[in-house]
Design goal:
Blueprint (H helix, E strand, L loop, with lengths): L1 H14 L17 E7 L5 H7 L7 E4 L3 H5 L6 H7 L1 H21 L6 E5 L2 H14 L5 H17 L6 E6 L2 H11 L9 H15 L10 E5 L8 H16 L18
Parallel strand pairs: 1-3, 1-4, 2-3, 4-5
Helix pairs in contact: 4-5, 5-6, 5-7, 6-7, 6-9, 8-9
The structure holds adenosine-5'-triphosphate and 2'-deoxy-guanosine.
Adenosine-5'-triphosphate binds next to helix 2 and helix 8.
GO molecular function: ATP binding; deoxynucleoside kinase activity
InterPro entries: DCK/DGK, Deoxyribonucleoside_kinase, DNK_dom, P-loop_NTPase
Protein name: Deoxynucleoside kinase
């Protein structure tokens, strides 16, 4: 009897996968060419994405889930984060992570997905800024970082191009004030400047983050003049799909290899 039990045990052990067998990440193969629209608060991301709604047959465009953050089971987490960050910044960031992950992994049958912001901007810009400002305790920061690395280990995050709506803090600060979103009434210019530098570290100076192609859009341009920048990004996005060639990501005035 004992021999039989040992034999069965050995049998099961040989059928176990070796521990380090590469386990496929959740969501691999389910996502199309994905564009992340990034930029400071008020840089015009939502406005930019609305411009692509005319391609809704080909593009699955998802704006930021701000309304989910403003009403989570009756709690305005966005407002709580701004008025009492010591207590609410960490839970707010964990809910942002959940809502962003939902968007990153949402299936679509369309060949292009456009997301407003991402897990990356939450991680490299907002969480960093709150921690630097002492509004997220070191212990909370370490927990969030642990979550980010685990989520990235087990989940496939498709990101083929980042469109960076590059602005200057003073310009977006005026737009925020004019838009007058109640939760942002207390946001100082200094906070916008800090977020700007963190976006620049990530997307321009490449000090942190993943090597995703970045298309820089001159987003200080007013609505009356920005159409040419929207058109250029449209061409880059569709070209990247059709020819699978690397996106040409600098505006003509800034390209060293400008072909004329
Ligand atoms: N190019 C532009 N010139 C002037 N105003 C703009 C421009 N783009 C957007 N706006 C205005 O600025 C405000 C912010 O725009 P929008 O909501 O698109 O920014 P956002 O980046 O999505 O902001 P958030 O980060 O808060 O989601 C809105 O009132 C919008 O009408
Ligand atoms: N703290 C914090 N963490 C995030 O990950 C994050 N993502 C967006 N936001 C804020 C910016 C605008 O007020 C509003 C809409 O973008 O939400 C965030 N705030």
């Amino acid at each position: 009897m004992q021999r039989l039990i040992i034999k069965r045990l050995l049998g099961t052990m040989t059928s176990l996968k070796p521990i380090n067998a590469a386990v496929p990440k959740y969501g691999v193969g389910t996502q199309p060419f994905t564009v992340l629209i990034e930029g400071n608060i008020g840089s015009g991301k939502t406005t930019f994405i609305k411009h692509f709604q005319k391609f809704e047959d080909k593009i699955c465009a998802m704006t930021e889930p701000v309304e989910k953050w403003r009403n989570f089971k009756g709690y305005n987490l966005l407002e709580l984060m701004y008025i009492d960050p010591d207590r609410w910044a960490m839970p707010f960031q964990s809910y942002v992570m959940l809502t962003m992950l939902e968007r990153h992994t949402k299936p679509t049958d369309k060949p292009i997905k456009i997301l407003e912001r991402s897990l990356y901007s939450a991680k490299y810009c907002f969480v960093e800024n709150l921690h630097k400002g002492g509004l997220i305790h070191d212990g909370m920061y370490e927990i969030l970082k642990e979550w980010y690395s685990y989520v990235e280990d087990i989940t496939h995050i498709q990101a083929d191009l980042i469109v960076y709506l590059r602005t200057t803090p003073e310009v977006v600060y005026e737009r925020i004030r004019k838009r007058a979103r109640s939760e942002e009434a207390c946001v100082p210019l200094e906070y916008i400047k800090q977020l700007h530098e963190l976006h620049e570290d990530w997307l321009i100076r490449k000090k942190v983050g993943c090597n995703i192609k970045v298309l820089e859009i001159e987003a200080d341009l007013d609505l009356s003049e920005i159409d040419r920048e929207y058109k250029r990004s449209e061409n880059v996005i569709t070209a990247s799909i059709q020819q699978q060639r690397p996106a040409v990501t600098a505006s003509p005035s800034k390209r060293s290899d400008f072909l004329g």
